[in-house]
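Quick one: co-fold with zinc ion.
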Amino acid sequence: MLKLMCKEFIMDFLSDYLDGTLTPDVITALERHLQDCEPCVAYLNTYKKTRELTGRAGRAEMPTEMKVRLREFLLKQLTKGK
Ligand SMILES: [Zn+2]
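Sure, here it is.
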């Protein structure tokens, strides 16, 4: 079973997930990850909302607020537990 780290989820798959361009395998892994990862769910919701606000203009530039949140999120993920 494919297992994802938060960083991979956010950096590699999130936008493809919302675009619906992933393979079923990856989608299953993502949804499994989301089931027990609250931070990623929160992040996904924020990301979705931002995309709605910025419209469906394809590959729009990531808003500054998103960048800040993303950095905070990743930092938290990287520094917790160990
Ligand atoms: Zn996660």
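If it helps, The longest helix spans residues 38-54.
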